[in-house]
Specification:
- The complex is a heterodimer of chains A (231) and B (406).
- Chain A is an alpha/beta fold.
- Chain A contains seven helices and ten strands.
- A six-stranded mixed beta sheet of chain A has the order 6-7-8-3-9-10, sandwiched between helices.
- In chain A, helix 3 packs across helix 4 and helix 3 packs parallel to helix 5.
- The two termini of chain A are 18 Å apart.
- Chain B has a six-stranded mixed beta barrel. Chain B has a two-stranded antiparallel ribbon with strand order 8-9.
- In chain B, helix 3 packs antiparallel against helix 10, helix 10 crosses helix 12 and helix 12 packs antiparallel against helix 13.
- Chain B is elongated and about 105 Å long.
- Classes of the chains: A alpha/beta (231), B alpha+beta (406).
- At the A-B interface, helix 2 and helix 3 of A face helix 1, helix 11, helix 12 and helix 14 of B.
- The structure holds adenosine-5'-triphosphate and magnesium ion.
Chain lengths: 231, 406
Amino acid sequence: MGEALIQLRDVCRSYDMGAEIVHALRGVSLQITRGEYVAIMGPSGSGKSTLMNIIGCLDTPSSGGFILNGKAVSDMDDNELADIRNQEIGFVFQTFNLLARSTAFHNVELPLIYAGIPAWERYEIAVKVLEQVGLADRMTHKPNELSGGQRQRVAVARALVNGPSILLADEPTGNLDTVTGDEIMLLFDKLHHAGNTIILVTHEEAIAQRARRIVRIRDGRIASDESRDAP
Amino acid sequence: MKLKTELAESLRFSWSALMANKMRAILTTLGIVIGVVTVSLMSMAIDGVSKSFLRSISSMGSDILYLEKNPWIDNQEWWKRRGRRDIEMPHVRELNRLIGDRYLLSPYAHQSSSVKYGTESISGIIMEGCSAENAVINGYTFTEGRFFNNNEVDGYRPVCVLGHDAADALFKGGSALGKKVKLNGINYEVIGAMAKRGTFMGFTLDNNVYIPITRLLSDFAWRPNVSIAIKAPDMHNVDEATEEIRGAMRKVRRLEPGQADDFAINKQEVLLNTFNKVTGVIASAGLFITGLALFVGGIGIMNIMFVSVAERTKEIGLRKALGARRRTILMQFLMEALMICLWGGLIGLGLAWCLKPVVNHYIPASISIKTVVIALFIAAATGVISGYIPARRAALMDPVEALRDE
Ligand SMILES: Nc1ncnc2c1ncn2[C@@H]1O[C@H](COP(=O)(O)OP(=O)(O)OP(=O)(O)O)[C@@H](O)[C@H]1O
Ligand SMILES: [Mg+2]
């Protein structure tokens, strides 16, 4: 086993709604190693997205410890969190979340801009990543000129462009039909083989089965955590 | 390095936002446009008025005092001046006996008149009656002939000196000397034609006709009242000179020690002060309108920026997820507000430029670099100030909440 990339210890996340307190996570402890391919499953409202947001440093735990890549995230200020998101995390969303008025290239370039990389280097890197997802010929297209699967591939390219430690995908195939969904999953397989760490939220058993490890969540707690060997 | 790439992205961000909502941007920018137009027109007006006024005023000479029945500018106690005695030629002569050794004195009075030579005639010219000293005090120069001397003044001689343009119009470049012209129907002999003098407060001085003051009073004037231009050959201390002249004039008027002056000593300086007051009023009125327009404009910008932030909530969340810092988001929205306002500023300047010919009709107007810089700076400042609160709201958004926005 490699080093622990993600270490969650007894993480809780609750929302104070005034009248009541909603407990989205009630003590989650989880270790994920570099290079793992983890699927997170569970019923709607069980806390999967909340967990992903915490791992992705978009959100912080109400209590409990979270160490990412050896750094304690709970102690970080807003700028440091932004930099972590920029450098260590690649997000893929269910609804793609591409900038509608920008080209595929500019969408992919965006994290590089926030990393402060000069324009000519940005171009090289973004082109390479777009090639990796098979969209080098669609660089100048805007999202509304691309199919759903292509849009999601642009989003994957954008997530990969800064060479993050973790790829976080919250129901990446949720808005795609089975065929294009499979395309995206093949892309994830490929990325996993290339050494990327992937955490994926899904409702579909078939998709979860592609991962080496399935964590099931119920009511804000880990209900089961199974690993299998490579097929 | 990072700041530079972020700045470039901010520019692109705000540009695309503007392009997506051109009409909205143009409409919200109206307040700024009005503000900038007022500022530019105001500074155009003040510049123009100052330039022409100061040029006129300096032609008067700061060392000439004008002894007159009434002050030029006096906004109080005008009722006390009712019934003042006229200043008449005997007064002038007596004053001249008292201080004539140190000062040059010229009595003068004006009258509207027409001048006629053969079939040529000009009406609505200014006829100035004065003494020989007037030419020295005002430094007249001549294209031909000379000014009249005091023998001619005291002898009621019907002689006249024509202003440059008047001579030109009547004699078409030929010599005027020795010719008889009719002033309001009375024959006068031309003894001189003057070189060009230019304009005073927008009126040409070159249509004037000069005749001995004695003739003006006897032939044309309704009342015997005159003003006296007084100049000291080297007047170092205007206040001292004023006091001396005042003392002498009190003697001439036979005023008792307790009595108030029944005359006034006017100076160019008074006009200057009043002028400054007037431009001050123009400026404060202009600034008030500008301020109001910019305030309204600023509120409009703030409003539209709140809308823009709300519309792009999800995008803000996404950008944060991709690593945008608070500062970056703040900068992007500030840039958008700034761009809208600079648009407004440019449109405003363009409008002001179009209005320039209209203003030019009344006063010499020009848009200086200073005006452009000030107008754009004001527009930019409005953008930054009114964009700050919405931009800050965007910058402080919680990324998870923002991403959840539909
Ligand atoms: N901002 C919030 N305020 C209040 N409650 C919240 C908030 N965000 C999430 N929750 C609650 O936390 C719980 C977990 O939500 P979460 O989005 O993590 O579920 P999920 O497992 O991703 O569900 P789904 O499969 O439907 O996406 C839910 O009960 C939800 O109502
Ligand atoms: Mg979810």
